[in-house]
Amino acid sequence: xxxxxxxxxxxxxxxxxxxxxxxxxxxxxxxxxxxxxxxxxxxxxxxxxxxxxxxxxxxxxxxxxxxxxxxxxxxxxxxxxxxxxxxxxxxx
Length: 92
Hints:
Layout: H1 2-11, H2 21-34, H3 38-57, H4 64-91
Helix pairs in contact: 2-3, 2-4, 3-4
């Protein structure tokens, strides 16, 4: 039975370690940092929106600052990618 558990851990290395808001937030931050394509950024934004909806539904306003930090991280990643594309287009 133990090899099965090891296999599951290898498959879920990118998943949140628990359902606690802090662990989910850390996982979302890892997802955002791993984005390389526009589609991944869109998916990360949807994930962040669902996280924010969960926080609002559960009445956890204290996490709104953390949610805003994650949103700013994602926005910065998108704008950096777009700026690089613009610079590449201008250099040609």
